[in-house]
Structure formats: C-alpha cells, structure tokens
Amino acid sequence: MDKKYWVPALEKSNLVLQAISEQPSSLKLIDLSKRLGINKSSMFSLLATMEALDWVVREDDATYSLGSKLGYIGNAFFKQFSLIDRFRKEASVTKHVIKETIQLAKLERNEVLYLAKEEMPSPVRLSSEPGIKYPAHATALGKAMLAWVAEPELGTLYASETLDPCLTPHTLQQRSDLVRQLEEVRTNGYAFDLQEAVMGFCCVAAPVRSGDGKVVAAISCSMFQHEWEAKRELARQEICALAERLSQYQTTT
C-alpha cells in the first residue's frame, strides 16, 4: 500500500489490540505504552477511544481485555464462511432441480463480488468465478441487493443519471430506470437480468438476509436465453426458496 494513504493511529490501534489479545486482562496502560513504544498520552487517547467504541474493556484492576464489538465483528467475519458452506450444501441440491448453475455473491459498493457457485455440467462456462466483480446495475444479483440500499447511499453510489459501464445492448443505462426496477424488486422479492450482463443469458436472483433482516448476500441462477421462458418460473421459485432457507440459517446461527 502507498504510505501516503497510511493512517498511523490505526496502525497503533492494531498493535494495541494485538497485544491485548495475546495477554487479556494482564496489561495496564503503562505496560502497553512501554511494550509498544507509544507515549502515555497517546496511549491514553487510543485506549479511551477504543473503550468508547467497545473495542476494549478496562477491568477493575486497570488492565484491558477485548471488547464486545470485536466479538461481533469476528462473528460476522466467520459467518460469511458459514454462509458459503451452507450455500454449497443447499445449492448442490437445488441445482439438480433447476439443472442450472447457482451463484452466491455480496455487494461491494456498486459492484457484485462473486463468492461461490455450484455448477451444472455445460458446454459454456460462466465467467462469474468466485472473486470476480461485475457492475451491480447490470446483474440480477446486484439488483437483488441494491433494492434494499437506503436512498441516500444509492444516490452516492449512482450520482450520475448515466449508468456505466454498459455491458450489452440490454444493460440499464439510466439511473431512473434502475430505481424503477429496484422498486419492483422490493415488491416482488426477486430480480431479473435479461441479457443485461452477458448476451444470450438470463438470470433470476433473490436476497439472503441476516437475523436482523439486513440483506447480506444474494443468490442467482443463470441460463441460456432460449431456455428462459420454459424454466423461468421454476428457477424463480427455487431461487426464492433457497434464499429463504439460507436466511433462516443466518437467523439461527
């Protein structure tokens, strides 16, 4: 990383958290200051801020331990891998019902990041491998998640009326058209991509929610355009049902 973007206070906070994690309820302010070479005044400010944020807890004997907020963040980190594991188990069954490849993704600003997929044998391999990103406005997965982004944030993500990039002649090109489709997604509970990301392919997607109802991911099924009319309703039903099962799993874990 270019050091001109480096934030020294964050680096120091990271060192403090590492030290506390290695010896919880053992180190006082003076111990941390000596060990890390951070003066007492700066250490006091760091610890006071992290305590206010629930990153650390100051015990009765003035030692420090990790706070509840880090437990929450750590749980969220591991939960994403639990979701991938559950997706693989559940989607491996659903893909044989639809006889099409199923994908899992999350939203990163205005892009879709593919996390996993369960493939059916096909002469054509989908380019959306795990780790690949696509513009959210051009995919059913993206629209299934953007539909629940708050309007102020959506306005920041799409500040211009013109949407970019345009991947196919069917890709949405106007922000107003995207907003209208997102309203339909919220009403219906699912989203379509009709040759908007890749020519010759159509897709249906549905959101996956956490226990508090927040959309944390989405799943989709893609197929050749010539198979779409015959299989669209089956795919819609199965993808919505799979999203519901994954959401219930998120609630119970």
From TrEMBL:
Membrane-crossing ranges are: none
Q: Which UniProt keywords apply?
A: DNA-binding, Transcription, Transcription regulation
Describe the location of the IclR-ED domain by residue ranges.
69-253
Q: Which domain of life is it from?
A: Bacteria
Record's PROSITE patterns?
HTH_ICLR (PS51077), ICLR_ED (PS51078)
One Pfam family this sequence matches: IclR_C
All copies of the HTH iclR-type domain together span 7-68
Alphabetical list of PANTHER family matching this protein: HELIX-TURN-HELIX TRANSCRIPTIONAL REGULATOR, ICLR FAMILY, HTH-TYPE TRANSCRIPTIONAL REPRESSOR ALLR
Protein name as annotated: IclR family transcriptional regulator
- Organism of provenance: Paenibacillus oleatilyticus
